[in-house]
Amino acid sequence: MNIWQIACGETGRTYDDLFLNHDVMFCGPGRYGSFDEEVYQDVIDREEFTSRKIGQVRQFANEVQAGDVVLLRLGHHVKAVGLAAEDGYEHNTTFDDVYGWDLEHTRRVIWQHQLTDELDQRQADGGLFGGRMPTFTGVKDKSVIDRIQHLFDRCEQRELTDLPQPPSEPMSMDELEQALFQKGLAYDTAHRVSQTIEKQCRLIDWYRSSGLAPDRPAEHEIVAHVILPLLKALGWSEQLLAIEWHKIDLAVFWKTPTDERHCKLVCEAKVIGHGLQDVLAQAERYVSTLALDECDKILVTDGQLFYVYERTGDAWTAQPVGYLNLFKIRERHVCPINTDAVDTIMSLTPARVAR
Prior knowledge:
This protein is of the alpha+beta class. Helices cover 32% and strands 21% of the residues.
C-alpha cells in the first residue's frame, strides 16, 4: 500500500469542498490532454512547466493504485484521509477551470469523513507536514506516517458520491455578444464589451509570455488596462469611476457628487495569478470604515478572474454570486457554483449597479 499526499489549493484559492463533496482528487496542468509521455515531455522542452511539475502529473496518472491511502492537504494541515478507488486515472474536462486553474487529471477517492475529528485532534499542535511541499507526491516520512497510521485500518469502502455536473461550453465572442443582447444590452454596447474582452485576453497572454516580470503588471496596471476598459465598455463614464479613492483601488458611484453617499461598488485588484478567495475581507473593511452605506457590491479581480459579492442588509455573501473568467466565459461553472458569466457582466452595468 502506497501513501500519497495532494494539496487542495493554496492561500486565497482552495477547493477542498470539491474533493470532499465529490470523492475526487485532481491536479494540473491538464490543458494538454490526457497524460502522454511524449506530449508532456514537449511541454518540458518548451519550458512551459518544469520537469518536477510534470513528474508529479506522471506519478498521479501512472503510479496510484486502488486501495492506496491519500492524504488531503491544505498547507501543512491534513484535512482528510481517503482510499484510492477502483476507478483509474481519467482526464476529465469538468475541472478545466477551478478558480482559474486547469486541473483535469482526476482520480476517484473514497474520503473517510468519519475520521476527520480524530485527524484534527492529532494535529492540534500543528500540521503533519513541515516546509514547502509539492502539489502531489508519495509520503515516506515515518514521523508523519506513525502519527496517523492507526487510522488507515479504519478506512471503509462505500459507494462513490457523484461528480459535479460538467460546466457549459466556453462561449465565443459572437456567442457572448448575442447572449448579452438577449439580456437587454444594446447591440453597440454588447459588441464593445466583446471587443474589450478579446483585447484584454491578448494583453494578459502578453504579460504571461513576457514572464510576468516582478514589477509588471502592478495592481494599478490591472485597474488601468483591464478593469476600467471593461466598465467603460459597459457604459460607465469617467466621472463615476474613481481610482485610488480613499485607498480603494476603484470606487464606482451611481451619481455625482462622487462622495460616500453615492458609492455603490468597490473594486479590489490584485496581480495576475493572485488568489482571490481571501480578498473580500479587505474590501469589506473599506466599506465599513468609510461607512459606505449605499455600497452593495464588491468586485475582486486579478485581471483574468472576476468575483462579484453582494450585500443583503449588513451581511456580505460568503461565496461569490458572480464569476467571470475572461478566457472561459460560461453560463454554468463547476465553481463558484450557481454563477453565470453573462449575468456577472450584466450585474456590472450602470443600470444594475445603480438600482
